[in-house]
Amino acid sequence: MSTRRSVLKSLAAGTGVLSLSEVFAANEKVLGAKLNGKIKHSVCKWCYRDIPLETFAQECKKIGITSVELLGPEEWPVLKKYGLTCALPNGAGMGIEKGFNDPALHDELVKSYEDIFPKLKEAGYTTVICFSGNRKGMSDIDGMRNSAIGLRRLMPSAEKYGITMIMELLNSKVNHKDYMCDHTAWGAGLCEMVDSEHFKLLYDIYHMSIMEGDVIATIKKYHKYIGHYHTGGVPGRNEIDEGQELYYPAIMKAIADTGFKGYVAQEFIPKREPLASLKQCVEICDIA
């Protein structure tokens, strides 16, 4: 409040007479301008491990972020305390390398997700992350068929609880060697096999730029299969500013133009002051 008052006081001390709209504009600049609303903003907490969740939640609210994600049930109450949601929770599955492409894991995976579905519903959440697993010598078509068999077992429960399972597209070139769901076309093929609105893809812009490029055209082509987006600068997975090769305002416009109503989450590893970088990158994505 004191900062706001000092600004208004200094404005009043000026020689000119300010209009009411000019006073409001100055006031809003001090408090933080509202975001435009075309993009729903989320952020992945793991990129800010050194900041306690309570502190992080409060800072996200100041920026205008409405979701903090990739958090499990024990962390959800903190988000609710500060009026935030978790646009993409975790808390089920066996990690990135062990996923639905391995039939030997299906029973354990199915139980894991069926256990968390009611918890998600009770918390008011509608998504959960999942993974294909690594290839381990398996062909892509066999992995797709195996994944579809396992995921179809969960679709009746997912529908019952109103949960959409979101499989992440990851690069197998730099970060996740041997991961199977590493191309958008493969993920789209799996969506067709599962044949349910309760299974979608997480299109990670950083990962898919590394694997296949052509980000905007790919989003336009496959948008009906995409339920969530992540950001990240290429190369390096750092800030999404002018220090990397992707032009995020155009990518965000392409996403908005598809009619997408879900969340875009910042998932970059900050090289500078973390919260200042987060605010800047949200503003880059906050297209008018």
Task: Describe what this molecule looks like in 3D.
With 288 residues, this protein is α/β, with parallel strands linked by helices. Helix 6 links the parallel strand 3 and strand 4. The relative contact order is 0.13.
Defining traits:
288 residues, alpha/beta, seven-stranded parallel beta sheet, 11 helices, 44% helix, globular
Radius of gyration: 21 Å
User: Could you give the order of the helices and strands?
Assistant: HHEHEHHEHEHEHHEHEH
Proportion of strand residues:
5-15%
The oligomeric state is single chain
Give the neighbour order of strands across the main sheet: 2-1-7-6-5-4-3
Q: What is the overall silhouette?
A: globular
SSE class? alpha/beta
Largest sheet: 7 strands, parallel
Query: Separation of termini?
Result: 29 Å
How would you state the average pLDDT, rounded?
Answer: 91
Poorly predicted runs are 1-33
**Could you tell me the number of beta strands?**
7
Instruction: Specify the number of helices.
Output: 11
Helix-residue proportion: 40-55%
Briefly characterize the structure.
This protein is an alpha/beta fold. It contains eleven helices and seven strands.
